[in-house]
Amino acid sequence: MEPPSASPRAGRGPWQELLLAVSLLAFWNPPTTAQVTVESVPPNAAEGKDALLRVLNLPGDTASLTWFKGETVLPTHKILLYVIDTKITNPGPAYSGRETIYPNGSLLFQNITLNDTGSYILQIINQKFETALIRGQLQVFQPVSQPLLTASNTTVTEDDSVLLTCSSSNTGISIQWLFNGQILMLTDRKKLSQDNSTLTIDPVRKEDAGKYECEVSNPVSFRKSDPVRLDVEESMSQPLLTASNTTVTEDDSVVLTCSSSNTGVSIQWLFNGQILMLTDRKKLSQDNSTLTIDPVRKEDAGKYECKVFNPVRFRKSDPVRLDVEDKRNSTGLRLGSIIGIALGVLLGLALVAALGCLLLHTRSGRVSLCCDLKELRSPASTPGHGAAIRCTYPDSLPSSTAAVPMYQELQHPEKNIYCQINHKAEVAS
């Protein structure tokens, strides 16, 4: 529908002044055209767009139409006056230059603003100077801007919690949450704040991993946030450290194994609380789960630990202490023990040898003394009649002494040595 041809800026004539006076006098008259209605097209207008307050069922005997802004009919609130017969339009104090009135009473708003929101009154005066007041409502909304979605952490561990927040610069909006492109289903673990701007997931489960979005909307527009991807790691369990042997001997080998129920984790080894330095003797398997020390040295003794970790957390094993003993010989005895035994044997042998020499020296001295005494006691001998003295060392002892214990022989050494004297010159008388 084309707007009236008369300029809204044209001056008022006597007839227009009369219509204005009559309309003011009849302002409080009850309406006679209750079937007349006003509707907003669209029902909710977007800022910067056009909107129309459309009049339906306008009576055929209408003489003039006047739009007012607000809840009351006051000259200061007048937007436009339109005279049907003359097609003359007369603006009022509330006219902004963006409004246009049509012969059917409809009012067009161009480039509508938020300030245009509110109530409007259409005053209809018929040819009998009867007045009717028809009310209309205009709702203007600002198009929403893209919201910002943030997460307290985008990589979390099972049983942890995560907070996602949807921020918007707009007011009077609704917020909806999407998960992997579908409307998010709330559960006991997934809860929204009162204004729907915050989503809390507690505790997090593996199935919560995926793409999250929030969508803000008002009656005239909607916008989605950029997606935020949530990654959920397995809960970190404590690794188990085992050793093929916790007490080893130098030059032996030992294998330590770090076992974890988690996947996608890295493994690090510690020795006495410090990061283990690898050498030609200390080697790790391809996945770092096994440490082999071959050969073992004394300096390898100490406390070993393994640590498993991912980008968000880590866990250490309980320590395993490795004891390293001195190298042993084929008998299984320690070198120190062997040296001690050998020294003991040598000392024992030396003691026995010294005691034997002492006994031998004692016996030899007594035999010599016996022979000397007999020689002194015998008379001078003459050729052919002298006494013959003979000292002998028997090769074997008499049978009567064969069973004599050694300690008795030591107490009576004279039984083993004797002197035999032949008196060839004496004849029994």
Summarize the structure.
This protein is mostly beta strands and 429 residues long. It contains 3 helices and 33 strands.
Topology:
Elements lengths: L13 H12 L11 E5 L3 E2 L4 E6 L5 E8 L8 E6 L4 E4 L7 E3 L5 E3 L8 E9 L4 E8 L1 E2 L6 E4 L3 E3 L4 E6 L6 E6 L2 E2 L6 E3 L5 E4 L8 E9 L2 E4 L3 E6 L6 E4 L3 E3 L4 E6 L6 E6 L2 E2 L6 E3 L5 E4 L8 E8 L4 E3 L3 E6 L9 H43 L10 E5 L13 H6 L6 E5 L7
Parallel strand pairs: 2-11, 13-21, 23-31
Antiparallel strand pairs: 1-3, 3-8, 4-5, 4-9, 5-6, 7-8, 9-10, 12-14, 14-18, 15-16, 15-19, 17-18, 19-20, 19-21, 22-24, 24-28, 25-26, 25-29, 27-28, 29-30, 29-31, 32-33
What does this structure look like?
The protein is mainly beta. It has four domains: 14-141, Immunoglobulin-like; 148-233, Sandwich (Immunoglobulin-like); 240-325, Immunoglobulins (Immunoglobulin-like), CATH 2.60.40.10; 357-422, no CATH class. It has three helices and 33 strands. It has helices at residues 14-25, 335-377, 406-411, and strands at residues 37-41, 45-46, 51-56, 62-69, 78-83, 88-91, 99-101, 107-109, 118-126, 131-138, 140-141, 148-151, 155-157, 162-167, 174-179, 182-183, 190-192, 198-201, 210-218, 221-224, 228-233, 240-243, 247-249, 254-259, 266-271, 274-275, 282-284, 290-293, 302-309, 314-316, 320-325, 388-392, 418-422. Strands 13, 15, 16, 19, 20 and 21 form a six-stranded mixed β-sheet that branches. Strands 23, 25, 26, 29, 30 and 31 form a six-stranded mixed β-sheet that branches. It is rod-shaped. Mean pLDDT is 81; it is low at 1-33, 373-404 and 414-429.
